Write the structure tokens for this entry.
Amino acid sequence: MNVLQTEALTINFGGLKAVDEVDFAIKDEVIGLLGPNGSGKTTFLNLVSGIYKPTSGKIIFEQADITGAGPNVVREKGIARTFQTNRLCLNLSVIDNLLLGLYSQQKSTWWQAVLQPKRCHKELNRNIEECLEVLHHFNPQLVAKAYEPITAIPLIDRRRIEIARAIVGSPRLLLLDEPTAGLNTEETSQIIGDIGKIRNGSQKVSMIIIEHDMVVISRICHRVVVLNAGKKIADDCFGEVCKNEQVRRAYLGG
Amino acid sequence: MPKTALFSNTLVIAILVSFTGCMLLYIALVGPLIAALAVLVLVLGLMVTAERTGKVEPVYHAVEDHKGISLAVIILFVLALPFVLSNNYLLHVAVMGGIYSIVTLGLNFQVGSTGMVNFATAAFFGTGAYTSALLATKFGLSPWFTTVAGVVAAASLGLVFGYPALKTRGYYLSLVTIALQVIFTLMIINTSWLGGPNGIPGIPAYSLGGTSFRLPLAIFGMELPYQANYLYLVFILLGLALMAASRLHNSRTGLAWNAIEQDEIVAVTQGINLTKLKLLAFALGAAFAGLAGGLYGHYTSFIGVEDFDFSKSLVFICMVLLGGMDNAIGVVLGALLLTIVDEKLRDFADYRMLMYSVILIIILLSRPQGLLPKRIRRYQAAKSAGEAKVQL
């Protein structure tokens, strides 16, 4: 059964078709999204996460049509994402950044916060426990730094926190936009290990990963989808895609 | 102060801090201008040294852990104020400080928490005052009831003024709010049934059990000036407003506001409904200002359009900036100190606003983050949980 499915998904920016009639489907698996610069990978993620509204086509998530739903609605339904450049709230603490990931699941309203603080504290404490557990899973040392501002945290841990923020709400689908960008080889393999841990954990989560590092792709992806100039040109396992003539041409020219 | 005392005697610290705070405000209130300025500089100096030596957080924690005691000290101080102040004028300044503090607490939701610089706070303040005053003078309704109506009217206006916040950001939003503020002032001047340039005189006072608030307060065989009634009322409401503001700050709502301030795209992809949260910041902030406006009208018995013009909005923003963005205690401190300084500057007559601006510029240049800056949230029950994990 498909977790997410797009049908002829298209978006135009003026005269440019950034994503052009892409049919895409993901089951309980990890899919690598490849393509040269400007091929529409990030635009595709922005479409799925609701940041852009498609010009035409459909997005179906768990049998429900979510085409045109806003990013907050998409997140509530269970699609979480990270960004290519690290986007944490710098002057908030580690724990506050993680708590933001649980926002869509928290029930207490603003007037309950004012009138029934006990009830809200209960919910908050449960959420904090949950966040600390996820944090512990990624890097036990980070738990001690939970109340420090993000500015005091090194880059690799910021990456981890961003991924943790995306998975604290147990999403059904996780979109990772270049999780290893800007990291060295050692750090890259650590992050890849962390992503593997999410899959090995108890929760069932499908992933779409944009990545340029082929070693990373071959290690963690079940299937690879290649975009070029907004069109899908390949959709197969990594080995087959490497042999694909169209893919070679897109990457190497000629 | 030796380090050991600081950690073992948190109770003493809490009492000392709240008592010193009250005393400093008292000195600023009763002393001449130079005393008020000296207090400002002293608070600044204390904060800077405390930050350098890393003692700010322990002191904050001490006060938070003994919230009840600190509160009791402050309540005692407010209760005693009318007894020790011989001068009705000084009592009036204290009441105004309380009223403005309520406004700034509301403005802080927009400016401090959500990063939307709103230059139309005086319009919200005025909406509360005008609604309440009109209903009370024209229809003879109870001032208690009309004040609530003023809060509702201001909150509704907040929703209307908040609408541009959904379309514009940063400087553009500020420009729109300036325009709305100017429209508000012009509308009042040009509408005769709103009193026009003459304002609304003869606004009735609150009364409780048949006793008007404008009569002297007889207590313990002493007769306190009528301002004491308002002082107690205003500070009770300020206390409630402060409680509501800090509870909101520590809730998911406060956190969502901060996320919007930092990065709207991140906020929305975490499931935060930007429309709802921004309008909430405007409506709640306006409700606080509307409450203060109602209190103001029924206290002074006269309201005129110059009490609610653009320059008033600027003053409110300065109070938030000086006190410290997104720090509820800070903005109240900022509002109280600036109200006092402003009153002391009356000696300068025509140069009053000039002096006011110069003082503000100097302070904000030397400490742009305000007296008590924004802090990392320290969740009550999470302390123990976090520490337990650390020990593991």
Residues 88-348 of chain B form one domain. Chain B has a mean pLDDT of 88.
